[in-house]
Each structure stands twice: as C-alpha cells, then as structure tokens.
Specification:
The chain has helices spanning 13-36, 43-58, 70-88, 100-115, 144-147, 150-165. By secondary structure, the protein is mostly helical.
Length: 166
C-alpha cells in the first residue's frame, strides 16, 4: 500500500519508527511557532497546526493499526503528549488532544461499518453472522497478532457494542 512500510515478519515496528521520525521533525516546527509566537500565535492556531501538520502523519492509515502492540502504541502516544505539552503546558487537562488509541478505534469502526455493506469489495472477508442476532461469529485464533489484526479486532469491538445495546 502506498505510504506503508511492511516488514517481512509483518510487524509494524519499521513503519512506526518512520512515522515517529517524520512526526518528530514536525514537532520542532510546533515548538518553534510556540516560542516565536507567544504574543501573536494563539492556542487555537497551534492546535490547528498540530491537527493538520502532525496528527495527519500519526493517523495516516490508522485503522490498520487498531491492534497495534503496546510498545509501538506508546511511541506514537509520546508524540501526541509532547505536542500537548508544547501547546498547552505541562499542567493542562483540555480535550483538544484526544488519545490516539481512541481515535484509531473510532476510525477503525467507521471503516468496518463501510465494509459491512454487501456492495463493499472487502465484505467477503467478514465472518458469518450468528443466527437471529446482529453479532458476528467469533473465530478461534492461535496468535495475538491475528486476533489484533483489523477484521478480528473490529469484530470483537462490534460484538461488544451490540451486546451492550441490549
């Protein structure tokens, strides 16, 4: 896929390190704007720069990373926290910088709901529905890597959300 670095063992480490390096360079721009713009650049402007200039890199193809391992997820989250500290200071608790994990979950579920439409090309990848319910059949998986991949992870999230509706 365009813009994604694959490793022969199908781990995301190489790609996440690339994202960290690219976003880290852009964090310096945010820091520079904060330093020179204490009088002229508002917090709202800095948040806009973060959303458009840094978050776009951190979230590129993020539904694929919905089951990202803890180590890589923490690396990405550190960049978000660093940007939050630069823009707001260390004692801020505003909600301008939501967790990347939560945003990945939301975007993955939006993508999953489009796949659920029968005219979607990826619809054939979904497991069967259980009879008389809106739940999907949960497959047995031997590895955590498979269980945390996009379709199985989203099936689990979907089933949990459907069960809590009742």
């Amino acid at each position: 896929m365009l813009g994604i670095t694959y490793h022969k063992s199908l781990k995301w480490d190489t790609h996440v390190n690339y994202i960290i390096k690219a976003a880290g360079r852009r964090v310096n721009v945010l820091r520079y704007l904060r330093r020179i713009g204490l009088c002229s650049v508002s917090k709202k402007d800095l948040v806009t720069v973060y959303n458009n200039y840094i978050l776009s890199i951190l979230e590129f193809n993020c539904p694929l990373f919905v089951g990202l391992n803890k180590k890589n997820a923490q690396k990405l989250e550190r960049i978000r926290k660093r940007c939050h500290r630069i823009v707001c200071g260390s004692d801020c608790d505003c909600d301008d910088f939501p967790s990347l994990h939560e945003r990945r979950q939301e975007q993955a579920m939006r993508t999953f709901s489009t796949i659920m439409h029968t005219d979607n090309i990826s619809h054939c990848l979904l497991p069967n529905h259980l009879p008389r319910t809106n739940l999907f059949r949960h497959e047995y998986m031997k590895t955590n890597r498979r269980a945390n991949s996009f379709i199985p992870h989203c099936v689990t999230l979907w089933n949990l959300s459907e069960m809590t509706k009742k």
